[in-house]
Amino acid sequence: MGSKYSKATNSRSDTSNLSYDVPFESSRFPLVDLEEATNNFDDKFLIGEGGFGKVYRGVLRDGTKVALKRGRPESSQGIEEFQAEHKIHSLCSHPYLVSFIGYCNERNEMILVYDYIENGNLRSHLYGSDLPTMSWEQRLEICIGAARGLHYLHTSGVIHRDVKSTNILLDVNFVPKMTDFGLSKTMPGLDQTHVSTDIKGTFGYLDPEYFRRQQLTEKSDVYSFGVVLCEVVCARLALDPSLPRDQVHITEWAMKWQKKGQLKQIIDPNLVGKIRPDSLKKFGETAEKCLADYGVDRPSMGEVLWNLEYALHLQEAVI
Ligand SMILES: Nc1ncnc2c1ncn2[C@@H]1O[C@H](COP(=O)(O)OP(=O)(O)OP(=O)(O)O)[C@@H](O)[C@H]1O
Ligand SMILES: [Mg+2]
């Protein structure tokens, strides 16, 4: 979980009566089925906790493994996030997006039900755990898949708004799945270049231009994805206040070295000697472009995808 930034002006404070609509069709689960799937929300089934609430793994009666996100009833943003998840999942489905199975809004509960993604989030495979190190090729494949998922969202008129390494899940074959559409926005029309909106997202990943202008475009996702690329190569937190001041923000730190052509000095020690220089160069240049100050100077996700595929090609090229 990261610290969330939410400058909402229209949050609802009274959630005692959850008589909200679910605007789109999807399966509605009786609460009793979800209690059965998680042994009554037993802590043994807990797999994580985020801004929306606790996340449990569970098994439905037909054997389907699921992840349940149980909203905190006291969360004023919960209802909006709950509805946004429905909306986006009813509009979008793709191999690189987590599948949404259904929901439960019985009694005071707000529960979202997803496919269970076996290997958890990308961040835990990069740092802060004892999980085995991933190779450079594997990391590139994951970035490429996540970029495909985001490219699909953008071409469907959806801006994710909370791109980060904990919102990229890895399945049993390490295929990435983008998740968490609770903050996502749909673009109102094809001629529209931005959505004016409150600032929401996670510290360390927020596009500074969006922060200043409160105008959201798909290039804000591109910026956040650039932060993820830095995490992938450096294996450290996006924002780490315990580090010396010039290292606190991964973007400032990584781009300082990238601009000197010396990114290799700060890569994950597990990758030293294992990345071909031209592949690292292409990757560093791609991250740098994603992190450009102005959205207009950033590439589209389609271009990012192409560049990452090229970085993988350079890594795999046989001399
Ligand atoms: N479908 C899923 N399958 C397996 N694990 C999941 C699934 N969804 C979420 N998780 C796990 O639960 C954790 C918490 O998820 P959640 O989205 O609530 O919070 P977060 O992304 O870590 O932080 P934040 O709420 O600040 O965005 C994730 O990091 C992930 O490890
Ligand atoms: Mg998440």
UniProtKB/TrEMBL annotation:
Belongs to the protein kinase superfamily. Keywords: ATP-binding, Glycoprotein, Kinase, Membrane, Nucleotide-binding, Serine/threonine-protein kinase, Signal, Transferase, Transmembrane, Transmembrane helix. Residues 41-311 form the Protein kinase domain. Its main location: membrane. This is Protein kinase domain-containing protein. It is a single-pass membrane protein. It comes from the Eukaryota. It holds the Pfam family PK_Tyr_Ser-Thr. It comes from Solanum pinnatisectum (tansyleaf nightshade). ATP binds at residue 69. InterPro entries: ANXUR1/2-like, Kinase-like_dom_sf, Prot_kinase_dom, Protein_kinase_ATP_BS, Ser-Thr/Tyr_kinase_cat_dom, Ser/Thr_kinase_AS. It is found in: Membrane. GO terms for cellular component: plasma membrane; plasmodesma. One of its GO terms (molecular function) is ATP binding.
